[in-house]
Specification:
single chain, about 325 residues, mainly alpha, Arc Repressor Mutant, subunit A, 4 domains, 15 helices
Length: about 325
Amino acid sequence: MKIEIKYTGGILNLPSAVADLAPVATEAQLKVLLSLAGAPQYFGDIEPYFTTLTQRLELTVDEVKDAIAFWAVKGVLAAEGLEAELKDAYTSDTVSKNREPAYTGKQALAYVEKNPEFRDLCNECQKVLGKSFTAQDYNNVMQLKSYYRFSDEYVLLLLAHCVEVEKSNWAYIRKTAANLYDEGVSSYSALEKHFAARHNKRSLEYKIRRLLGIGDREFIKAEKSHIEKWIEQKLPLELLTRAYEITVEKTGKMSYAYMAKILENWQLSGIKNAEDLQKSEESYKSKQKMSMSTFDTDDFFEAALKRSNEKMMERKKKR
C-alpha cells in the first residue's frame, strides 16, 4: 500500500514532537492544536476568537484553554495568561509508558517562580544533591512530580538514595525513577521498604564478597546463583564463614557446590544460626569421643581375653 499527502489546500507547520505526543493527546487537544496551526490570526491575542473557535470545534472555552496549556507544557507552543491551566497541566500530566514530558528552561523557571511549594521542594533537593539548580535541574524535578506524580517526600528519599550510592547524576536518577515506577513502587512507604531491602542485600553481599575474596567485580554464573540464593535466604555470615572454612579444609579449594551442600544439610538439620551450629558440632565431637572410647575399651577386653586364653593353653601344655 502506498500513500502520499496532497498539499493542494495549504500546509500546516507543526513541530516534530507533535507526532510523538499524539498517542497521549486527547481528541480535544489535537483539534485545538490543528486549528491553531491552520489559523495565524489566532496567534497573539486569542481571546477575541474564543467564541468562533469553540463553536467550530464544539468545545467549551475551558476545554480550549486546557488544550493550549497541554501543548504549552509539552513545549510545542508558548502561552501567556493561563497560569491556572498551566499549573493543572504540570501536576496532572497524563502518564504514558517510556515517555517523559519535556519542558523548556523558560517554562521550568516560570513554574518555579509561580509555585512556592514546588520552589521549596527544589530548595530541599539542592541541599540533598549539594548543588545549585539550573533551569534543567528544575526541569528534571518537575518531570518526577508531573510525570510519575511522586510525593515531595518520595522525591527527596530517591535523591538521597542516589547520593548514598554515589550516582547522583540525573541520568541515573531518571532511570531509577522509571524502574521504580514500572515495579509499582510509587508511594513513600513502599520506597522506604524497597530501599531497606536493597540496603540489607548490599550489606550481606558486601560481606560475602570479602569472605570469598571476590572484590567489586561482577559475579560469574557459577557464583551468582548460589550467592543470590544465600542472600535471599538471609543466611547469617557466621554460617557462611564456617561453611567456607570446611569447604577449603576438605577440598583444598573453594567449591560453591560443596559449600552449598553443607549449608543445605545444615538447614535440613534445623541449624539456623551460629549457636545452633556450635551445639551441633559439640554434640558431634562428643559422640565421636564416646565412640572412640567404646572402641578402645572393647579392644582392651578383647586383648585381655586373648592373653588369658593364651596363658591357659600354656598351662595345659606344661601338664
